[in-house]
Amino acid sequence: MSALLGRSPETLSIQERRQFAGQWIALEIYSPETLPLREIAAVGPTPAECATQLRARSLDPSGFEYTLIKPAF
After folding, report:
1. Is the distance from CB of 9 to CB of 66 less than 8 angstroms?
2. What is the pTM for the complete model shown?
């Protein structure tokens, strides 16, 4: 799953979407002050696991949105 970190969700291939379907990703919430890049910051089976990963990197989980990866088709 670490292969997804730092990538844009829009760049995931069909094969990757199938492989990681059902996993959650964390993306930094957009704000005009930060203009975050749309990059995957954490991947896990639940939003709580994503938040744990973010905390381990000294990031505030409340500044992220959590999205479920869905299969391409």
Report:
1. no
2. 0.87
